[in-house]
Here is the input.
Amino acid sequence: MERIRENAAGIDIGAKLVFVALEGQPVKQFATFTEDFNQLSAYLVKHGIETVAMEATGFYWSILYEILEDAGIDVWLVDGRETKQVPGRKTDVKDCQWIQELHCHGMLNRCFVAKGKIKEPRRYQRLREDHIRSSSMHINHMNQALTEMNLRLKQVLSQIHGVSGMKMIKAILEGERDRQVLLRMCDKRIINNKKEEVLKALEGKYSDCGLFALRQAYDAYYFYQEQIRQCDEKIAVIIQEMGGYGEDKDLPGKRKLIRHHKPNVENLGANLINIFDGKDATILSGLTDYNWLQLLSEVGSDLSRWPSEKHFTSWLGLSPGQHHSGKKKKNRRKKGQFKAGQIFRQASESMINSKKIALGQFGRRIRARKGPAFAIKAMARKMAEQYWRIMVKGFDFVEQGVEKYEEQLLAQKRKTFTRLAKELNMDETQYQMIR
Here is the structure.
């Protein structure tokens, strides 16, 4: 095979040791301390190495990646699934040699690595989502503690961590047991519509261990809410620096409502539009400013690094895989966690039951034939393609709606029926009926 790169090295990264393979040199190992990373960088520069490939192993690669880049070396972060060794030959020494060999022959694909300011909102956003998951876990703990005392608030309130629910829980922890007093803490709509149900739900059997568990979950929930607030402050500073946009009054049109986990970031939509040079992703059905912020943190603002929408959807893990052998044809998806792809999936889930959006109608057709999992993935892929077009080519997307979509389907069916009628030599009356 033709060698594409001459001055190339391969690195295998571990928790304690790093193994480096150079052409014509014995494999050398370094420790994972910063001092040793600097020695590794100097070693590569000394031998005239211009490019390096290394596996994306956890977070071990990040500091070494920056040190090597600062030394002027072209660093390739690659997927470990592309560097699998021959069975029975798996060692750290052979792994780095194999990576070096593959890199020399141009057989590795480069992973996307966030650079510059994009790294900061990504880190803060991922921390924020971790805190959201942790707070959700403690909501479940509050539900469990209440149920153990037979306080059935979960059955009468849409969410116990709403304003009314948390007011009542706080009062219970402070010693209030009068059901009428607790009821008055609820929103007027709850009192008017569910007064009797709430009173029945508040009649329980209190216990010390149940109240202790409720207190623990209550305090933990608010602890993570404070952590989320601090992440929002950091995100707001970075977004303001990246966007530098002024006031919401200049925004085109009304922004979509963010129903859950809305970040406390002022002028979020305006700053995002400014970061993307006036392009607005929220014209896509299902995408809000919060979804857009998540996508910015995961894929950045320059989508031209993907040559086409097909490359982009493949990287997101939304394209069907190919596995053909003889007469067997299987669609296998890429294994792994694709955070950006999951954002499009979540947006698609909210639209599959929509009666006024064309993408929702498309998803329901796929769901009827292949099930919800295929439908969600197909919808997410279409949405990702539209997102790439908007951000790269400025595609002016307009939601056509279900009626327009159904008109197109009907036109396709008429075209098919017309072709079949000619093939079957149907008479003029029947032919005209089909037309």
